[in-house]
């Protein structure tokens, strides 16, 4: 039996983490999920995870170490650079989005305010990166 794909979610907003935890547990239970409060928290714990994440959902705007800085670190490390990273933000500028793509983000999603839309968006994102694109992810 293979382990459930690991999704790491990095977001500084406790309410949003709670919402995503509920969403994954009720609607996307086939994925294992770990939550981190900011980029530094994630990068500090990353070497100690039992396996590398199959997907990282990364908030763009966070204190301490923001999404772009975290992405930059991941893409500079040979061990982590193939991990698919999806950046998320409710209010990123076009320049910020372009900077993320130039740094190597795999996708950029606007955080929807509607729960149904969020559920659909995350479901599609996980299916794409963890099922449809599985061969690339397995190379991690």
TrEMBL record:
Pfam family, one: Response_reg
Family annotation (Gene3D superfamilies): 3.40.50.2300
Domain of life: Bacteria
Alphabetical list of PROSITE patterns matching this protein: RESPONSE_REGULATORY
Transmembrane regions listed in the UniProt entry: none
Keyword Phosphoprotein: yes
Keywords: Phosphoprotein
Residues with the 4-aspartylphosphate modification: 59
Residues annotated as domain Response regulatory: 6-126
Protein name from the UniProt record: PleD family two-component system response regulator
Lineage of source species: Bacteria, Pseudomonadati, Bacteroidota, Cytophagia, Cytophagales
